[in-house]
């Protein structure tokens, strides 16, 4: 049996949304590439470009309409909010491991779905991320800050030399 997410909690600006958040869609880390081909090669290969291929985003899905989350929607650049997603994963051996996402961003889309009398009122927010960290059992696995030109894997700053080369 594989590791299974047993419990999850969402915290926005320090307030917990236990029992209200239903699903969190995590960002996809896709590295930018370009095709490269040269004489003597039988065909092109993909070469990594030391950057992300797309903007990072997460989707927060609720079965309720938490009133406070309407307040984080803004149209002004620079207004961002911090949030965390914490999970507990248990393996077949019974051992539990903490998983955590630390992020900051702004609401790109507010989706209230459709209303139906007597049914849950769905509510979803798509968050455009400016900062993303992934932690497992207290160990940082990824830290990505596109504006700051930072990509860390297991604590190693993969873009430090590039920043130094351009004076950042």
Topology diagram in text:
Layout: E1 4-12, E2 15-16, E3 21-25, E4 31-36, E5 45-52, E6 57-62, E7 81-90, E8 96-111, E9 123-136, E10 139-145, E11 150-153, E12 156-157, H1 160-165
Antiparallel strand pairs: 1-2, 1-7, 3-6, 4-5, 6-9, 7-8, 8-9, 9-10, 10-11, 11-12
Structural class: mainly beta
Could you say which overall geometry the principal axes of the C-alpha atoms support?
globular
Q: Tell me the quaternary state.
A: single chain
What is the chain-wise order of helices and strands?
A: EEEEEEEEEEEEH
Count of helical regions = 1
Percent range for β-strand residues: over 45%
Mean pLDDT, all residues: 91
> Total number of β-strand segments?
12
- CA-CA gap between termini: 47 Å
Query: How large, in whole angstroms, is the Cα Rg?
Result: 19 Å
Main beta sheet: 10 strands, antiparallel
Question: Which range best describes the helical content: under 10%, 10-25%, 25-40%, 40-55%, 55-70% or over 70%?
Answer: under 10%
Q: Enumerate the spans where pLDDT stays under 50 for 5 or more consecutive residues.
A: none
Describe this structure in words.
The chain is mostly beta strands. 4% of the residues lie in helices and 53% in strands. The protein has one helix and twelve strands; from the N terminus they run E-E-E-E-E-E-E-E-E-E-E-E-H. It has one helix at 160-165; strands at residues 4-12, 15-16, 21-25, 31-36, 45-52, 57-62, 81-90, 96-111, 123-136, 139-145, 150-153, 156-157. The strands form two sheets. Strands 1, 2, 3, 6, 7, 8, 9, 10, 11 and 12 form a ten-stranded antiparallel sheet that branches. Strands 4-5 form a two-stranded antiparallel ribbon. It starts with a strand and ends with a helix. The model has no long low-confidence stretch (mean pLDDT 91).
């Amino acid at each position: 049996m594989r590791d299974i997410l047993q419990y999850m909690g969402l915290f926005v600006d320090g307030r917990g949304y236990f029992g209200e958040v239903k699903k969190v869609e995590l960002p996809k880390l896709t590295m930018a590439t370009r095709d490269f081909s040269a004489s003597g090669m039988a065909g092109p290969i993909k070469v990594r470009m030391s950057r992300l291929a797309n903007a990072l985003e997460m989707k927060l899905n609720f079965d309720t309409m938490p009133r406070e989350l309407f307040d984080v929607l803004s149209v002004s650049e620079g207004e961002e909010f911090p949030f965390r997603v914490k999970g507990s994963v248990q393996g077949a051996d019974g051992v539990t491991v903490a998983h955590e996402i630390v992020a900051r961003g702004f609401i790109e889309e507010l989706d209230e779905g459709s209303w139906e009398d007597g049914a849950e009122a769905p509510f979803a927010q798509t968050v455009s991320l400016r900062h993303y960290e992934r932690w497992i059992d207290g160990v940082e696995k990824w830290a990505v800050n596109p504006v700051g030109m930072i990509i860390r894997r297991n604590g190693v700053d993969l873009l430090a030399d590039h920043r130094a080369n351009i004076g950042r």
